[in-house]
Structures are given as C-alpha cells and as structure tokens.
Amino acid sequence: MKFTVNVECSPEEARRFMGLPDVTPINEALVSEMGKRMEKNLALMSGETMMSSWMSVGTQAQDAFVKLMTSGATAAASREKP
Fold it and tell me: Are 56 and 40 within one domain?
C-alpha cells in the first residue's frame, strides 16, 4: 500500500518539528564577518596590484607548460634515435 501526505508549513515550523537547532544568528554573524573581511581585503588591494598578482600566476603557468612540452618533445625525440 502506498499513500502520500502533504504537509504545509513554513521552514521555521519544519525545523522546530524536526527538533533542529535555530542557526539563524550564527549564519547572520558568519555572513557579516565574511562581508567585513572581503571589504578589508579589497581595500588593501588596488586594481594594479590585483592585476599584477594575477598576471604573474598566468605567466608562471605558461612557463611551466612550455617546460613540460619541451621536456616531452625532447624525451620523444631521444626515443626515436637508434
């Protein structure tokens, strides 16, 4: 036998019915703290500083990729020689 029960209630009512704790104050404090930290970090970094740090990572990744391809090609070429 199969039956369906539909219950209409708010999320708050469902939380209380299931015996779950109310974490709203903790969530609000966490979001507030994250907002403060983001604003503080953004104020410390100028656009020029941000771009230079992003570009240095990009060039490092590009250099690493070129080295990887060069070493792979060198290894393949040395295998082909008798």
Answer: no
